[in-house]
Amino acid sequence: MENNLRKLRYFFSNWTFLFLVLTPTVLSSDPGFKLRYVDSGSYPEVKVRFHSNASFDSKGFVLSEQLNSNVRLTESFRFEKTDVKNPVHLYISIPSYRNAEDRRWIIQLANQLVKVGEQSGGTSKLQIQSDENKHSFERIRSNVLDISFPFPKVPAPNYPIRNWENFLEGIPKNQSSEDHILVFVSFAPEWQDRFEIPELAKRIRDKNLQLIVLAPSSLEATKLASYANGRHYPISKSDSYSDLFSYLRALGHEDYELVYTSPWKLSRWKTNFISGGLVSVDQAIRFEFQYELSFFRSLYLQLSDPLFFFPVSFFLIFLCLAALYYLRGYEEPSRSLVSVTNIESEFSERKEELQVYDRMYGETMEKAARDREIALAIAEKATLPGASYSYGVLMVRDGNHYPDQFPLQFDEVTIGSWESNHLVLLDPTVAGLHAKIKNRKGKHILFDCVSQTGVYLNGKKLLRPKVLHNLDEIQIGKTILSFRGR
């Protein structure tokens, strides 16, 4: 790695790197058209949105459509430029370093790559290559990639392909028309796991990702870029960085929209597959696209139109409410008459049964209620063992700080972790409603509310309610409460 970096710095100094990265460059002459989508919702008007890596002359193009084996030319068409930029999402894999100079150069490279993604409104994910550990940073920002960045120093990976496969597992499949780009940086002239290149390239194509390989000129790097339909930039050539950043910036430029009227003017509700072609002989450009007309697609486009969907939805909701109201008003008179007659008949039939039930069980229930009231009155008059206090307080210990005082001024004080309790304990071992203290004629009685960890009074687990005495210690979870009474 050191030899490669030295060779790189010989051809390409840090100042040259900053100059090429920060200075706008002229785009390549190859427009590189990329289809975004075809909008046939307003057929026969068709809108084709595409991206071009370079500016082009809108004159001299010929636009045609093919249906089966027949071809027709369009009478007129126009190009329109969109208003917003396209987000470029980057997934960057960089190697580790050997010394401070290597570290500064690699961080500078990652900083400029992430900054290009930020300027387009995209996101970036960074991986530090390692055979043993996984170092990845989600949604990283360029202002983080400076001299203070926690760059882990790990040995250079011996198997870069396997390392990139692990990185690829954490990247979701690109199911949109946006640009999601893999950037693999390597300083190794040979890859020991080069036989796994076809499988890695297949996985990159399956996830619909674009690949950029920044590595020394080697057969392995060329194969990987070729198999994955990507780009290879030799790391030892200074022109590679100018081309790389020009290409990335061009991806973030605005899209173009080709608007024209189809010469076939077919029915939107019949199935037809139409192929289009845009050709410019002078500029050596050939751009092809396809779109479909069918019943289900036209229905989907019609329903997805907000100007159609919302009015129809409101109308259907109003129709359902009106139907429910009508059915309710229609059934209400007959149902009320039937229910009244049924209630009267059932009441007359069971009248005798109710009278017998009242004679058998009514007096017994009244007697049980009277006995319960008498028992409660006796329990209130009974005296409890223990001292009575006119004033009680709990001292809550919190580490080495001075204990907090909590006065027992209610007839019943609840203790637990819920905020609805009188005394809230922020302790994970305390239940929501853990314990309570009742004040009965000046005697404070401690209860355990069937908690899982229990309540301890003076070091012993509380098995039944007990009256508190002065200087008693209560343990609830990891909290110690001291009772003071006077």
TrEMBL record:
Transmembrane segments: 307-327
KW Membrane (keyword) present: yes
A Pfam family annotated for this UniProt entry: FHA
Keyword Iron-sulfur included in the entry's annotation: no
CDD domains: FHA
Xref: SUPFAM superfamilies: SMAD/FHA domain
SMART domains linked to this entry: FHA (SM00240)
PROSITE patterns in the cross-refs: FHA_DOMAIN
Keywords: Membrane, Transmembrane, Transmembrane helix
InterPro entries in alphabetical order: FHA_dom, SMAD_FHA_dom_sf
Record-annotated FHA domain positions: 413-462
Name of this protein: FHA domain protein
Species name: Leptospira wolbachii serovar Codice str. CDC
